Amino acid sequence: MANILLTNIQRFSLHDGPGIRTTVFLKGCSLRCPWCSNPENLNPNPEKYVNNGLSGVYGREYNTDELYIEVVKDLAFYDGDWSSLELEEMPGGVTFSGGECLLQMDRLEPLLERLKAEKIHTAVETCLFAPAYQLSIAIKYIDLFYVDIKILDKEKTREYLRGDLSVYHINLQKLLISGKTIVFRIPVIGGYTDTDDNRRKVVELLKHLEGNILKIELIKEHNLGISKYKSLIDGENEIILPNYKGVSEELMNQYKEEIEAVMNVPVEVCKI
To answer: 195: which residues sit within 8 A by CB, 6+ positions away?
Structure first.
């Protein structure tokens, strides 16, 4: 079994799932979103970086035993109510993020099986642009899915994200049918996802979804990843700085109201 390639293990996370989480950032992504806030996780290979004159490498390999040892260091913080259907009361645990974490589900499977047997709550943050067999592994073990809804135009998905929208729709239906608990995350990015046409398509999609949907989060555009872009550029990697255009609070609130009109679940505007 190949090792797992990741860039960071972030402890005491409060924004990557319920409770206190240990977030594992896996390297490699199937998309190239121009606004990505974790550019060090796009390339599936290790990359040199230079930050304030200090150089290093984004990417370290772990085997499943090594990664297990790391995540159970925080076991004392994973308390919570497994029977609760409210996010705020669910257990802390381990979240797998990226990049696109589904791309390494086969490598993670022995670890996921072990965490499930020990009743450690798991979550993933995913765009669903991944092979169906990898999603099947995730459905088998993962407790909570944070799923992005980005761009719902086929041509623009190919142009801006370099993705195949049909893969997203197929995987989304598979996940919904599985009955797994889902929180949708909608990045609102100026000039890309905030257009009238895209908002209309997102609302139309949500209106017809049937599944175990707990919540919808609108994620406002931010520039928190800029320093990582610069560290990659200084490390002589080919990557382009994002051109953030800004999104108004008025539009965020309007989008929230548009979704609330068709969904009977909480809708929250988030800054990160």
So the answer is: none
Residues 213-226 have pLDDT tens digits of 999 999 998 887 89
Question: Which residue type sits at 170?
Answer: I
Q: Which 8-state DSSP code applies to residue 2? A: P
**Residue 80 reports pLDDT greater than 80:** no
Token reading at 198: 């895209």
**Phi, psi at residue 106, to the nearest 5°?**
-65, -35
Could you give all domains of the chain from N- to C-terminal order, each with its CATH number? 4-27+62-222+243-270 (3.20.20.70)
Percent of the chain with pLDDT strictly greater than 90: 82
**Is the distance from CB of 183 to CB of 216 less than 8 angstroms?**
yes
What's at 141, amino acid-wise? Y
Joined together, the tokens standing for residue 134 give 């990898």
Region 217-244: what's the mean pLDDT?
87
- Kind and range of the H or E run holding 182: strand 181-188
Beta strands in 52-129 (DSSP E): 54-58, 60-62, 93-97, 121-126
pLDDT tens per residue, range 129-164: 999 999 999 999 999 999 999 999 999 999 999 999
Tokens of 45: 């290979």
CB neighbours (10 Å) of residue 2? 9
Tell me what pLDDT residue 272 has. Answer: 66
- Let me know how long the chain is: 272
Q: DSSP alpha helices (H): ranges in 16-162?
A: 64-71, 105-117, 132-141, 154-156
